[in-house]
Amino acid sequence: MGVALLVSPKGDSTSQVNLIGAVMLVLASASWAWGSVVSKSAPLPKSPFLATSMEMIGGGVLLLLTALAVGQFAHFRPTEVSATAALAWLFLVVFGSLVGFTAYIWLLGVTSIAKAGTYAYVNPIVAVFLGWAILDEPVTGRTLIAALVILVGVALVNIEWKTS
To answer: Model's pTM, two decimal places?
Structure first.
């Protein structure tokens, strides 16, 4: 709900939201939340590196199939990729995936899952800050409420619910 609030139109004539992108973002957030809940009781491989590799390979294959299904490869021209875009992609591959997941797996081995999962509280705050600092995105009351809803959602996912 927090992500939906964050990306929904603001109610003025200047607000434009890419509906497909917004829906995909909300579905991605819902999928993450669902996966987080299911992963607590799902039988996963004993090796966290294997589990992470399977996740990344599975996600990559699904993204490639989706891109193929919607015709993205017909419009892709490697020669038209800017140096900035290529460097941004490389940064995300190295730091967002390889270093980030490796650090997370290491944390899982040396601390509790609850402590390792605290990254999920920091990411939304960092994203809002970077949007403001780098892209001049406004931080409004609506943005802060959306961030609070996201953080409450993360907290709810990380709470151990006791059932009788």
So the answer is: 0.57
